[in-house]
Amino acid sequence: MEQAIVVEGYTDVLALFQSGIKYAVATLGTAFTSEHLRLLARFVEKVILVFDADIAGSTAAERGFGLLSEAKVDLYVMTLPAGMDPADFIMSRSKEEFEDGLNNAKLLIDFCLDQAVEKFNLRETAGRIKAAQSAISLIKNLPSPIAREEYLRKTSDKLNISHHSLLTELNKNKGVMRAEPFEIMSKTGRMDTQGLTEREMIKLLIHYPEVSKEALEDLEVEDFTNEKNRYLFTVLKRFFKGKNSYEVADLFNKIEGEEEKSLLSKLAFDNIEIEDIAKYFQDILRKLKEFRLQCQINKLKSTLEKLNPTKDPVGYDALFEQLLQLEATKRDLKEKTL
Q: Tell me, what CATH number does 49's domain have?
């Protein structure tokens, strides 16, 4: 066996195995560690970390970057569509598509550098400077001077900043060893995809209460994971009961807390430049339902991973059938969105 795939859950391994991909292993919800890497290096020359494309996946990959100095194997990253894990992908797509993704996996260092650089506006000088500093914080931890030189050159070409300037900056910081690379993303303060979708729904409810009835009936407070989003939805659900129109001042008076009032004001005065509001509303509603289903799927997978299928095959099979039904429902929702 020349390569191994690293996934997060037991059900991911099972789904891949059933499709004919028999070289996957799972961390079972724990961080990918140097011990995992040492064990894999005894059997393979190439390790591909498979994650979804959201911030969690990026963070997990960047943690893997911290192990490069100990790696005796080539480390790659394959990203999946946001919100999808390997089990989702293999059941909704095909083995061939998954293998295409493996064949196009990026070297871990390339993946992490792209993540570090692309969050900045490279059209502006200030953005390129910040991107360069972010890239250097990763490059300085590469164990090989040849690798450091090569990735400085790539960064120079990408950012249109001289190699000499980047090298000077690198040498200035070379005494600071092994900064935690995965904090680059986690300290940005950005909301994840679900939080942004929740906020878009709240904005739609504020601007178009006449289309809010379905969302207020179908969504629950628990569907909102961001604390401020959850609070505003709770207030809106109570406030809009039996109403088709309202005055913003009346709604504002129902809000407690200065930060929450400030957020409400911002959302109330944000423009929504969408021609087909009804369709856009349905798309956002379906996306939130997908997040709810994914939460249920994750909980079920967690339960399955704790069960031993040989000791309780009937119970395991029943839960796995529930998982397949939830996955099918989620796929149906996705198809309606397309």
A: 3.40.1360.10
